[in-house]
Amino acid sequence: MMRLNGIRIKLPKTEKGAVNFLNNCERRKRFVKDVKGHYKKHLKKAKHDLYRAIDEFEDGCWDWTIVKSYYAIFHAGNALLSRKKGVFSKDHSCLIIALKIWDLIGNELFSRLRKVYERFSDTVSLDLSFQLRKISQYDVDLWEDLTREDAKLVLDSAKEFVEWVEGEVFD
Length: 171
Description:
By secondary structure, the protein is mainly alpha-helical. It contains seven helices and two strands, in the order αβααβαααα. It is about 65% helix and about 5% strand.
């Protein structure tokens, strides 16, 4: 499995750090007021991206599995944020922290996501999906080092998250 070495995790580890992180996201205007009922469109896009990721995985295309899985997670998170708070996020890390601090995801889900993130983060990005998506899309050297296991890890996270969010937004 591809490992990115010598890297420090940037996701906040304490409640205070997470609150400060969220406040910074708000100051930087990373959340935008959403149209009522728009969460359905976010979820529809998440499911579309997830289905495309599954097809790419079945074709053995690890880089595009990761890219599409990343977007499935991002749009599903925004579906939840839109449904419960009436906003969406322009920033993946701000989105995940907001879901946690605003009690839209529980500690167990946050911990599982955090473990995945810690496995593959770098000094610029904050989580596995984002980092691997960047490599998949932009890095002409590292994309070939992505493995089936990398793709499966992100795809499984996307499947679980999209399914969970669907249950939450249509409760």
